């Protein structure tokens, strides 16, 4: 019986996601869904017309966040995800739309089911922190 990878330890999550190429596919699907889904219109409107920079930043963030190379800080400097997003009033509905797009993108990947579940559960953490940072800045 082979030992399943322990996601969240070392680079197991990064490897399960397919490395940077796999993360770029995930991010491409994520932003494609954001463009297509009516329930994501409000969060899409928070982005510039061109998503090229956003795509790179999210893929680079996910790389380091999942235990791979820390590409975001190498390219863009220190990461302050909640503080950066606090410039917009982001509420629970925005967070839910973001997570819905991410769930759809994850479902389109060839990830093992246990990793897909793990990844989506882990993404709820920064999503909730961003909502809280926005509340702190903009009020309820």
Features:
single chain; 140 residues; mainly alpha; Globin-like; 67% helix; globular
Write the layout of secondary structure elements.
Layout: H1 12-16, H2 19-36, H3 41-44, H4 52-65, H5 71-76, H6 81-85, H7 92-107, H8 113-138
Describe the structure in your own words:
This protein is an all-alpha fold and 140 residues long. The chain has one domain (17-138): Globin-like (Orthogonal Bundle). It is built from eight helices and no strands. The protein has helices spanning 12-16, 19-36, 41-44, 52-65, 71-76, 81-85, 92-107, 113-138. Helix 2 crosses helix 4. The chain is globular, with a radius of gyration of 15 Å. It starts with 11 loop residues before the first helix and ends with a helix. The model has no long low-confidence stretch (mean pLDDT 91).
**Cα-to-Cα separation, first versus last residue:** 51 Å
Order of helices and strands: HHHHHHHH
CATH architecture: Orthogonal Bundle
Shape from CA axes? globular
Helix proportion range: 55-70%
Average residue pLDDT: 91
Write down the CATH topology. Answer: Globin-like
For the largest beta-sheet, the strand count, sense and barrel status come to: none
| Uncertain residue segments | none
Indicate the proportion of strand residues: under 5%
The structure class reads mainly alpha
Radius of gyration: 15 Å
The count of β-strands is: 0
**How many helix segments?**
8
Which CATH C-level class is it?
Mainly Alpha
Tell me the count of domains: 1
CATH superfamily, please?
Globins
């Amino acid at each position: 019986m082979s030992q399943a990878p322990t996601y969240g330890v070392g680079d197991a999550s990064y490897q399960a996601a397919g490395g940077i190429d796999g993360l770029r596919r995930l991010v491409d699907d994520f932003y494609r869904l954001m463009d297509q889904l009516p329930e994501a219109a409000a969060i899409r409107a928070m982005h510039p017309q061109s998503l090229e920079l956003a795509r790179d930043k999210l893929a680079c963030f996910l790389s380091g966040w999942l235990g791979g190379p820390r590409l975001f800080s190498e390219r863009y400097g220190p990461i302050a995800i909640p503080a950066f997003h606090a410039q917009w009033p982001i509420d629970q509905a925005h967070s839910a739309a973001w997570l819905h797009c991410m769930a759809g993108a994850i479902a389109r990947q060839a990830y093992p089911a246990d990793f897909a579940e793990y990844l989506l559960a882990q993404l709820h953490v920064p999503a909730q922190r961003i909502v809280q940072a926005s509340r702190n800045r903009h009020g309820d």
